[in-house]
Structure formats: C-alpha cells, structure tokens
Write a structure and sequence with these properties.
Length: 214
Amino acid sequence: DPINNRKQHLTDSHRIEVIKNHRQWEKTTLDEKHNPFYKTISTTVKPRVKQQSDKLLIGLKPITLREMNSRKDHVYTGCVLSVTIIEETLSWIPSIHLVVEDENFDCERMLIYGISKEEGEYLISKLYTVGKKIHIINPYLRIGANDMKPSIRVDDISSIVMQSKSEWILNMCRYCCEADASKFCGKCKQANYCSKECQTMDWKLYNHKLICKS
Ligand SMILES: [Zn+2]
Ligand SMILES: [Zn+2]
C-alpha cells in the first residue's frame, strides 16, 4: 500500500535530520538577510533560464537515492535521478539549498551551485519550489567538506530537466507531501497542510517554526 509506505517514511530519522537541518540553514540565512550588511542582488529583468528538453534523458539509466553510496563522493555518469522538491529556499547565495524525495520516499539534501545573479531570484521563487518534479542527469553524490554529510550536488543547471507540469504536486502538504492540501499555517500563511494532524506533526517533527515568519 503506497500510502502506508509513505506514512512510515515520514518519521524516518534520516528524513527528519535532513529536513530539520535544511530549515536551520534557512533560518540562519534569513537572519543574515535581515542584517543590513547582507548584500542582496535584486533583478528586475526576467532571466532567460534555458529549459532542457527531456530528449536528453534518452538512453540514461534511472537511479534512486538508495542505489547511490551515501558515504562516497561519486558522479553517476549515464544515470538519471528523478525527484520531487519537498523543501525550498529563500536564498540562492552562495548556492540553492533544497531537499528532494525520490520514488521510494527517500530524501536527501540537494545543492545547486554556479547560479548567475540574473537568474537566482527567478529559480528559487518560480522554478525550484515545493512540489516541482525534476530529473537530474549524471547525478553527483557529494560528501560535504565541513559536515561530511551527503548531498546531491549540481554545478550546472543544464543538467536539470523539469518534469512536465502535469506531474507537479500542487499545494503540497508540507508534512505528508500529498497534493491539494487546502489548509494553511495561520502564522506564516506559506505552508500548506491537509489537516491539523499534519500541521502538528510538521511543527513537532520537522521544526516548522524555524521557517515560520509572519
Ligand atoms: Zn498532509
Ligand atoms: Zn508557519
């Protein structure tokens, strides 16, 4: 039963750690943004973000997170990793931090580097947001130099192919990742939930308060 299977994964210790660490990163970054010395680069011009064709995927071997060695720096050449974005970001400096989930409901941190100042704001607010599905070509599992933790690292966004709009999870619940969650966090009005239970679990388990700003 896929629904029960997903529910079991929501309390997985690695998932909790990855999501909480991401939100802690977001909080730290936001606090810096409110610091007047933080140099924000705003742009008024909509950038020309090159959209990749899914023809690029032909001949690539599908791979999942559990098939990648989470203790070894390695580029999986000839493979494609297909994931849903389940945590988004408000900052693209120095890199875009996301959390992604694959078809087995396994999740991992994802870092995107090499963002130009023209496209940064557009990428984080319009493209790489919660519920979007992407393919990552030749995924690179990178062990963090400081924290020694794994992440999926992208150095060139041309290796990301957006899945078609019909695949996206619209109004995704921030706890259970189901679509069409119609309730909101009353404080930040940014987080969707399908029920009071999901909201409570997101607060308790994944520390929603770190990213809850009114
Ligand atoms: Zn839910
Ligand atoms: Zn909130």
